[in-house]
Amino acid sequence: MTAALVAERVTRDYALDGVTVAALRGVSFTIDAGDYVAIIGPSGSGKSTLMHLLGGLDRPTSGRLLLGGREVAGLDPRELARLRNETIGFVFQSFHLLARTSAVDNVALPLVYRGMRASQRRRRAVAMLERVGLGHRLDHRPNQLSGGEQQRVAIARALVTDPQVLLADEPTGNLDTSNGQAVLALLEALNREQGVALVIVTHDREVAARADRQIVMRDGEIVETLPAPEAP
Amino acid sequence: MRFAEAWRVALDALRANRLRSMLTMLGVIIGVAAVVVLVAIGTGTKQEIEQQVEGLGSNLLIVVPGQVNLGSAPSVSRMDLSDVDAVSKIVGDRNRVAVTVASGETVAAGHAETFASVNGVIETTPNVFVRHLARGTYLTRSDVDTQRRVAVLGWSVAHKLFGDRDAVGQQLTIAGVRFRVSGVFEQLGQSLGIDRDNEVHVPITTAQRLLATNRVDGIAVNAPDRDEIGDLSARIIAELTRRHPGTQFSAVTQEQILGVLGDILGVLTGVLAAIAGISLLVGGVGVSNIMLVSVRERTKEIGLRKAVGARPRDIGVQFLLEAVLLTTLGGVIGMGLGIGAALVVAALSPVPAAITWWSLALAFGVSAGVGIIFGVVPAQRAGRLDPVVALRTE
Predict the structure, then answer these.
(1) How far apart are CA A84 and CA A98, in angstroms?
(2) What's the first-to-final CA gap in chain B, in angstroms?
(3) Contact check, Cβ <8 Å, A57/B388
(4) Is B307's CB within 8 Å of A96's CB?
(5) CB of B60 within 8 A of CB of B254?
């Protein structure tokens, strides 16, 4: 079985006012289906850049990056969009739900870009919302939901496409402790039960410590992997 | 993304900003309404004038001295009644030949008086031009032959001099000379603000004595056969030129008059539509502007849509449809307003207005086109947004 994510010596440079800044300086790791990985590091460590690359929102400057077994470098924006749609589910710190759009329609949004019929979309979105415990909030709009509920809608949206990888960027950052714990517990349950690889990007050590593996980043490089890989 | 889905998304976005959508549409609404109304007025005027010219009579040929040139003063006529006889011979039927000598004169009855166009004519006039009498009888050949002082009044003249009384049999004076009213024409109405009923027909012989002249201003022929008009006019002009060496004569047919008038009014309608079209263009710029604002405002939404799998084209189509929806909706509303305004103008003012399907189709097509043209740039900008940058935008 192919790995969900493979990064080999991935670099990403940005040109800022004519000066090239290296945000990632050669990062390598593999994430398999069902893995639970935290990427941790202070701001400026390159973890956001890495997350954008892993999510197929951006392409590396050099190195090999495989998402769902496909090499990202050769894809145009159209193919990349399709890869994101089929392989990756995003959960953002600030939820990024469409205002004025019901929970069920928010969850169904990725399926719209698959060209799926409305009735089928709704069926899958409803099932997903029930799975995250929001079966009673289908037609509520984001502003009628609590922060924790909004993040659960976002999780349902990330999973409605049956992705191989769930990428969560500071998923608890905008939530209080109990809601944060509930959201993490939900993500972990989905990881366990559905076999989707879970990658949490965070600077919160407590959150990171719950993962099976922590990738610690600083200055665009991986400085440590916890627990230390067993010697072959 | 399915196309129907894209329409729904675009409609939702417009609903989200109802007031702004309405204000943006207003430019297009006004532009389309202006095009529809002005084209309706131009077309209505053209139709009315064409009807009037056609109503003069079919197969009409008008012979005048000098060159026919709209805008130049008519030359002094050297034709007299003997020319009319010569033309009648060529045509072969005196009843198909009419003649006129016209002059503006004061017409009075009792204390009432008015200024009218007095036309000296012969009894054949109703055979050549379509004129119907409301009351009484027209001039007779013996009226013409014996210089009788009888007059047929246009509806306005009769009304001004005699009010609601029956004018037939009454006395009046033309330039101080007494006449008896023998008939009254049916009302023709106004055309371009000119009262077509402000005229008096008298025998040409009487008119010539009144005006101390023997000239005739023009000869009109009702050609027996439409196909022979050209041949007939050539023969008439040749004969008149032979009789009056050194004088030029021209003949115009009804079709030529219609053609010239049609050209002038067509240009007029086009100019009106173009002026109105400018406001439509300004409306389009407004749409473009608002769409650019909308793309900026919804950067985060665009980023999210891209993150979950929207292709650049999906986003572009979404924003393009939004612009097209704005302008076509504005176009439909503008068409409704334009039709309403044209009907009001036609009903409440002397200006005629005729709504044509082509002007509605054009207005709708142009407003949709404006949406596409002015929506493309914002749509492309939205489609090309970098999802990483877009998601980061707050």
Answers:
(1) 19
(2) 26
(3) yes
(4) yes
(5) yes
d(CA A120, CA B114): 84
Q: How confident is the model at residue B67 (pLDDT cuts 50, 70, 90)?
A: low
User: In one letter, which amino acid is B204?
Assistant: I
Residue A198 near residue A166, CB atoms below 8 Å:
yes
Choice among A92-96, A129-133, B68-72, B328-332 with the minimum mean pLDDT: B68-72
More confident residue, A65 or B70: A65
**Contact assignment for A90 to B313 by CB distance below 8 Å:** no
Query: Which two structure tokens, joined as six digits, stand for B357?
Result: 């399907």
Contact list, B301 vs chain A (CB under 8 Å) = 98
Give the Cα separation of B160 and B153 in Å (integer): 11
Task: Provide Rg for chain A, Cα atoms.
Answer: 18
Q: Give yes or no for a contact between B326 and B14, defined as CB atoms under 8 angstroms apart.
A: yes
As for the ipTM of the complex, it is 0.93
Helices A77-87 + B312-348 axis angle, to 10: 110
A67 contact partners, CB below 8 Å, separation of at least 6? A4, A5, A54, A56, A83, A87, A88, A165
The structure's pTM equals 0.74
Q: What's the CA gap between B23 and B14, in Å, rounded?
A: 11
What does the pLDDT read at residue B77?
64
Amino acid type, B95: N
Is the backbone peptide bond immediately before B224 cis, with ω within 30 degrees of 0? no
